[in-house]
Amino acid sequence: MSASFSIQDHNRTLPPQLDVPPRLLLGPGPSNVHPRVLSALSLPAVGHLDPYFLQVMDEIQGLLRYTWQTDNPLTLAVSGTGSAAMEATLANGVEPGDVVLVGVMGYFGHRLVDMASRYGADVRKLMKPWGEAFSLEELREGLETHRPAILALVHAETSTGVRQPLEGVGQLCRDYNCLLLVDTVTSLGGVPIFLDQWGVDLAYSCSQKGLGCPPGASPFTMSPRAVEKLENRSTPVKNWYLDMTLLTKYWGEQRVYHHTAPINMYYALREALQLVAEEGLKNRWQRHLDTAQLLWKGLEEMGLVCHVKEDYRLPTLTTVRVPEGVDAKAVAQTLMKEYNLEIGLGLGELAGKVWRVGLMGYNSRRENVVLLLEALKQVLG
């Protein structure tokens, strides 16, 4: 005798067909996606162990090494957003009791502190006002005082628009026998990065900012020094999904199944990285700087002030101080409603005090700057 079940009919309450508004995304991310990348998303899926897909994985690794300027064999894309790649660096790099020194100069420095503590690290903090960067001497003093196993820095602090200089930091870390971990979420693909020359040991990024790809497949890399620490762990990596001792068997020659990769997202990431290579890193970095300088000049002509001095200002993400008496959120809402244009609001200590304007990847174009400046003029009156 078969059981009888009652099926509820939800047809009358189905939502309408998707009708996504055509937003211009000039906030801190995601940015708009290049048409070629969107086209790659629609290609037919193959199996995650299909020879064609394995070739795509190899191409992603090679293109990531170029974009990051590294020869690290362990370079791959994590199946997840940038926060997953961020956590992967800590899950694989940190053992319980390790001293981890984090340079906190914004919101994402605090996130590194939170994540590292969850993996049992003895977390120490170097603090800097939101809008400033650390000097080499300040980092040296921190290393001398705390003697960490890992120094973690945010290269491009998305909450403040600060670019942290990294020249000389890697050598400093070697002098103190520690690994250098760097967040390149808002710099990869838009700001000069030289991982090997700078001596970076662990780095991560995302797909939806400077690379101009949807979120969901995130760059990750470990230097041979970091891999040696991983291989000599006395405890297993605490995160199975992000365990590089397992993932390298899938991304490496063994091709051992680990999880079902997001096939079409990897197509998109591969195409986005291919666009970086076709443009050339020097040309791409210069395009982002030229577009940002056009924005900075226009803001200045309007009487608006950037939060970060130009020496440390990110070309990919500009923080603009909200004039006294202006409602930051109301301006952003009006830009969205009347111009289909998104800018970001401040986070943490800068909430209500700045707008965050992103000019990243496909969106780093002169016409977008002109549109934004004209819309701001209209909204601010």
Automatic annotation (TrEMBL):
Keyword Nucleotide-binding: no
GO molecular function: alanine-glyoxylate transaminase activity; L-serine-pyruvate transaminase activity
Signal peptide start-end: none
BP GO terms, sorted: glycine biosynthetic process, by transamination of glyoxylate
Keyword Transferase attached: yes
Top-rank lineage group of the source organism: Bacteria
Binding site for substrate: 356
Cofactor: pyridoxal 5'-phosphate
Domain Aminotransferase class V: 46-346
Coiled-coil regions, chain positions: none
PANTHER family linked: ALANINE--GLYOXYLATE AMINOTRANSFERASE, AMINOTRANSFERASE CLASS V
Protein name, UniProt field: Aminotransferase class V
